[in-house]
Amino acid sequence: MKKLSYGRQWINDDDISEVVKILRGDWLTMGPTVEAFEKKLAEYVGVKHAVTFSSGTSALHGAMNAAGLKNGDYTITTALTFVATSNSALYMGAVPLFADIDPDTLCLDVNKADALAKKYPGKIKAIVPVSFAGYPLDIKAYRKIADENNAVLIEDASHALGRDRKELADMMTLSFHPVKHITTGEGGAVLTNNDGYAEKLLHFRNHGTYQKEMIELGYNYRLSEIHCALGLSQMKRLDDFIARRRELANLYLDQLAGVDNIKLPPSDKNHLWHIFALQVENNLRDKLAEYLRDNGINPTTHYKPVPLQPYYREKFGYKSGDFPEAEKYYAQEISLPLYPLMENSDVTRVTDCIKKFMLEGK
Ligand SMILES: *Cc1c(COP(=O)(O)O)cnc(C)c1O
């Protein structure tokens, strides 16, 4: 029986031959393919600059640096995200604050973020919403909070690489981890229309060096020619990847409509479907996950609310009950297999298995 995991890459022969060309060529790093990949990313999303980084995490670190975060500054982000979204603020000596999610979008609750910002007047330097699962963010609403606080708006768009955005944050970060929309193995990027941020990002990823002299502390966060050749090749199929993810997600939505104990995710025509995450009610989530695993289907869960991670509890004193919506969501959440290489019949196999469990497996 074919094993189904919650996500995986799609590498084809073209991808492989593009990478092999680099291996046979003159530049393995800091050559023309990095720029070509950056140009392609910027054009696709419809922004002026894309600056690649060694990972989505280092891209976030670069964005926090470009935003000018200093020791003692604060950022506001969602409790329901990957640890990198807030760790990147900690790397700058800043303090990440968390607000709960809006259960209708699963993204940072605008009113709660606003209320939190009002408690720290003059202190908030970045607002960092995350498009959870690829649900399109209400950028204008977050922009208002950022403007009122004189803060930089940074979208962690690791789940949300899509074409021609109408509304943009000041910076938008991407990840090219194998489960994301395109992959370079490891990799990331920051996209911006702001020339000043782009310049800062370029130097930060290269030891803080300007014209051969180091003028600020930077890092080696460069992405190699090998990675960028893979990314550039993957970009040719990004529209197809997204279209296929949408088809598969719509199949799930159709086939799971009305199934007992299942709460379907919020959908939207612009949803980018990085993951297909649903809620299982009545404490059945773990039993269902086990049943799926017994049938060769490997789901996962997204995300333990970051402030409840042991490190954050210890450092900042967060405790269970502080983020009721994110906690309730996490307790019920299951991420089903979703990646463009899946067949329609794979979706049906998963949904049949869920229906069977609800009928007789419990
Ligand atoms: C994947 C991801 C990142 C970055 O991860 P890397 O593995 O460093 O590329 C950051 N934030 C979110 C929400 C992510 O899903």
Short précis:
With 362 residues, this protein is of the alpha/beta class.
Structure commentary:
- This protein has 362 residues and is an alpha/beta fold.
- The protein has 13 helices and 14 strands.
- The protein has a seven-stranded mixed β-sheet with strand order 2-8-7-6-5-3-4, sandwiched between helices.
- The longest helix is centred in the C-terminal third of the chain and has 19 residues, at 238-256.
- The structure holds pyridoxal-5'-phosphate.
- Pyridoxal-5'-phosphate binds next to helix 3 and helix 4.
SSE blueprint:
Layout: E1 4-5, H1 13-24, H2 32-45, E2 49-53, H3 56-66, E3 74-78, H4 84-91, E4 95-99, H5 110-118, E5 124-128, H6 139-148, E6 152-156, E7 171-175, E8 188-192, H7 195-204, E9 209-210, E10 213-214, H8 225-235, H9 238-256, E11 262-263, E12 276-280, H10 285-294, E13 297-298, H11 310-316, H12 324-332, E14 333-336, H13 344-361
